[in-house]
């Protein structure tokens, strides 16, 4: 029998014998004496026209057509899209639980917009004080590694993800519910600070647990890139939050009503997490070894040592150092810019909210493009381009402060609406490739610890960057009535944003070896654990 996939087949006609001859050359059956075999098929009695000949023989060879590569790529893209649908009911439960959770997380800008306006206009806080309060309020997020280790190591009722989401949602309900009942007055700032700290504590616990849940579920179901879809839900929540936030502030001028609405949303998230079962998502429960032999502190100690081992791996440590340093070196002037827009330019809340909506729309678009196309670009090349774009967009604030936009006929409202939030959008998008990279390299069972450590590192670097911005604004003498030296601060921001390009070599050139690096890190961790034993 002739193997048509291994041997070329030549089909030709014979006018002399009124037949079609099919010939095969190459490796044949050893029983055949010749290295070439042929089959002659007689045709009809009508002779073939001698002039009718095949100008080019039809040759079937084992070589694949040139467009095979494109077909394979399209097939891979379709398989990536179909991965989310192959997990049945657990996938639908995961979609509802985490999709709504990330949407609510993005919607947090809705009450925060009202709170910032209250502090800037009702309490009349100066730019430095406002930014200082904002940075102090997010201090609970620095402790994210503790929440992640607890989520990985300590089970509550046989589950270690959903109970922590419920706890975080409950803390946020208490925080924003209290803010809805407190009238904003001059002596209420300490109470506001306590509520903000409590709310961010609950938000940090929920965020860490959701990140760990997405990473763990993606690894178990072998679905790569779930973080991209989480970013999409986050951006969608931000779009609605900023859109409705600006509308409510401009129409009602009652931030307390916004706090109450957000409390109702958090109550829905709390009810959803309480009524869901973790085993319905297909996640493993605690092992018998965990239940019988390990105490609470033994689990925490082991999890802490393991996460230190994972982070010390060079494939994770070098990119982590780069992204943390790139955030830290740029002094953030967000509070100062906010006060300039509201106090100096007299822009109302609807314009500020819509500018955030435009930024979140751009973030959503960038996330879709990354998931479809940009994730195939080497991460070093992608991040270097993103960093240059981020530094350039920081100069848009220089155009606004210098009122250059008015000289070319662009009103302040239109400029802020379309361009003001783009730099912040790029800064948020810059974290996505690193989140995907780190979660793909994370060994199974440590998703919560690693996600929490990354969140804490990002948050701590942002806080330090905010404090640097406060110090820079104070050094330049920027205040509520004097924004003259703000231009110099923006220029220094631009220069600082270009500095991380000097150590871009810390990032991997290609992501094709992620699985190899992951296996290496797992082997190193097992060797160190064996030595400890």
UniProtKB/TrEMBL annotation:
GO terms for cellular component: membrane
UniProt keyword Transcription present: no
Residue ranges of the region described as Disordered: 26-46, 513-533
Membrane-spanning parts: 162-182, 188-208, 229-250, 256-274, 320-343, 349-370, 382-402, 414-438, 450-476, 488-509
Membrane topology qualifier: Multi-pass membrane protein
Bias (Basic residues): 519-533
Keywords on record: Membrane, Transmembrane, Transmembrane helix, Transport
Main subcellular localisation: membrane
Coiled-coil annotated spans: none
Compartmental location: Membrane
Pfam family, one: BT1
PANTHER family found in the cross-reference section: FOLATE-BIOPTERIN TRANSPORTER 1, CHLOROPLASTIC, FOLATE-BIOPTERIN TRANSPORTER 9, CHLOROPLASTIC-RELATED
Family indicated by similarity: Belongs to the major facilitator superfamily. Folate-biopterin transporter (TC 2.A.71) family.
Descriptive protein name: Major facilitator superfamily (MFS) profile domain-containing protein
Source organism per UniProt: Papaver somniferum
């Amino acid at each position: 029998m002739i193997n048509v996939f291994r041997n070329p087949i030549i089909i030709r006609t014979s006018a002399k014998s009124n037949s079609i001859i099919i010939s095969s050359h190459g490796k044949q059956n050893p029983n055949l004496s010749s290295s070439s075999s042929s089959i002659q098929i007689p045709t009809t009695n009508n002779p073939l026209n001698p002039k009718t000949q095949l100008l080019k023989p039809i040759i079937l060879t084992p070589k694949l057509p040139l467009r095979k590569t494109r077909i394979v790529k399209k097939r891979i893209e379709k398989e990536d899209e179909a991965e989310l649908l192959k997990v049945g009911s657990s996938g639908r439960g995961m979609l509802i639980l985490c999709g709504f959770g990330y949407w609510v997380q993005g919607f947090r800008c809705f009450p925060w917009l009202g709170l910032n306006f209250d502090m800037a206009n009702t309490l009349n806080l100066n730019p430095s004080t406002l930014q200082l309060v904002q940075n102090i309020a997010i201090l609970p997020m620095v402790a994210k590694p503790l929440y992640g280790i607890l989520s990985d190591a300590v089970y509550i009722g046989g589950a270690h993800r959903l109970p922590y989401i419920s706890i975080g949602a409950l803390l946020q309900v208490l925080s924003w519910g209290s803010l809805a009942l407190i009238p904003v007055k001059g002596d209420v700032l300490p109470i506001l600070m306590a509520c903000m700290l409590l709310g961010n504590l609950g938000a940090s616990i929920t965020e860490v647990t959701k990140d760990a849940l997405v990473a763990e579920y993606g690894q178990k179901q072998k679905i790569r890139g779930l973080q991209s879809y989480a970013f999409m839900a986050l951006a969608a929540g931000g779009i609605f939050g900023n859109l409705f936030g600006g509308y409510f502030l401009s129409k009602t001028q009652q931030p307390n009503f916004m706090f109450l609405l957000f409390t109702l949303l958090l109550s829905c998230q709390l009810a959803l997490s309480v009524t869901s079962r973790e085993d319905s998502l297909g996640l493993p429960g605690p092992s018998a070894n965990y239940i019988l032999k390990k105490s609470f502190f033994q689990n925490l100690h082991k999890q802490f040592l393991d996460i230190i081992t994972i982070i010390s791996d060079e494939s994770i440590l070098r990119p982590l150092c780069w992204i943390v340093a790139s955030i830290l070196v740029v002094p953030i002037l967000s509070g100062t810019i906010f006060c300039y827009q509201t106090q100096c330019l007299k822009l109302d809340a609807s314009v500020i909210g819509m500018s955030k909506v435009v930024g979140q729309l751009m973030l959503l678009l960038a996330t879709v493009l990354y998931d479809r196309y940009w994730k195939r670009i080497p991460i070093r090349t992608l991040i270097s381009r993103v960093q240059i774009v981020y530094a350039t967009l920081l100069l848009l604030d220089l155009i606004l402060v210098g009122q250059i936009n008015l000289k070319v006929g662009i009103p302040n409202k239109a400029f802020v609406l379309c361009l003001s939030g783009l730099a912040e959008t790029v800064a948020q998008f810059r974290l996505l490739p690193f989140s995907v990279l780190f979660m793909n390299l994370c060994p199974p069972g440590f998703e919560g610890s690693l996600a929490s450590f990354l969140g804490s590192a990002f948050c701590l670097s942002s806080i330090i960057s905010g404090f640097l911005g406060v110090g820079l604004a104070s050094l330049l003498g920027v205040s509520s009535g004097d924004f003259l030296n703000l231009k110099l601060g923006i220029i220094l921001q631009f220069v600082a944003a270009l500095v991380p390009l000097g150590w871009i070599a810390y990032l991997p050139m290609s992501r094709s070896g992620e699985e190899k690096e992951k296996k290496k890190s797992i082997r190193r961790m097992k060797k160190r654990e064996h030595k400890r034993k």
